[in-house]
Amino acid sequence: MFLEQKTGSAPGLIFATIRQGATTRTFAVEVRKTDAGHFTALMPDHRWSVECLTEDAALLMHASVLFPTEHAQAPWLSNPHPAPRPIQPRKTSAQLQKADEVSLA
User: Fold this and answer.
1) What is the spatial distance between Cα 94 and Cα 97, in angstroms, rounded to a whole number?
2) Which of 23, 45, 58, 64 has the most CB within a 10 Å radius?
3) What pTM value is reported for the model?
4) DSSP 3-state helix, strand, coil percentages of the chain (rounded to 5)?
């Protein structure tokens, strides 16, 4: 996915053309500049994105929500190693003593 063209500058409304594969979409994104000099984009769910170092990165952050993602294009989304099994916590001496009392009764 990459930014083909943009019209406008931050802070303000930017019209961006994004290409992913053979698909091209143009949309309007509101981008703001923070006090730290970073950029945030208004996401499609009307929340602000995390701070990005460049305008282009903020626009791509917005576009990443709009474009469908396939595992072939984003191999980091697949999980080749299953999560480890949770470890059973060790029983305390009080729990062991209580279990012994119950089994003897």
Assistant:
1) 5
2) 58
3) 0.62
4) 25, 30, 45
